[in-house]
Design a protein that fits this description.
Length: 217
Amino acid sequence: MTPGKVTTLLLIRHGETAWNAEHRIQGRLDVPLSTTGLWQAGRLAQRLASEVIDAVVASDLSRAWMTGVPLADARGLSMVAEPRLRERAFGIFEGKTLDEIAARHPEEFAAWRARDVDWRIPDGESGTEFIARVLAAIEQIAASHAGRTVAVVTHGGVLDVVYRRARALAWDAPREHLMLNAGINRLQAEPAPLQLRIVDWADVAHLEHARDELAAS
């Protein structure tokens, strides 16, 4: 990567929602943070309090936006909404658990689990469409903030796309990496063409330490 052109990305998945706890597909549905998720957002902001962050860019869905607010407010920054950072549009799957999807839409469920990136979920997006918009957003963010540090608050599916691109993994390979709520994923990025390097992934020390303190009290 070229010195001076590299953007540091703090890629953050939103805090927990009630639907996360229920293993219910959210997609484009606008589900807010739960009480646990709000706590996670606060711990995240405390963890990053000493770090220089030049901009906070977030999906405009409320669970991501609410996670980013403490980070931005602590620095007097105005958050930037980026709709391309939304979760994949899961169409007829949204609002349902995996068991419900399998029972109500068995053919579509089987097609989705086959990991064909060109298959489009009815009323939703194909994997190819989702990947293209996510990488376009990340590349533009990297280009617009060269040499600076940006917190990017988004969704699990977006993290999956970025991780696979950085590691040059096949899009249809089984997932072995974590996308943790309110976790910090550090990357270096350079645009045109987009290059990504993972520095650290799935850092939730700020959440685990806090849980230890609560258990001891």
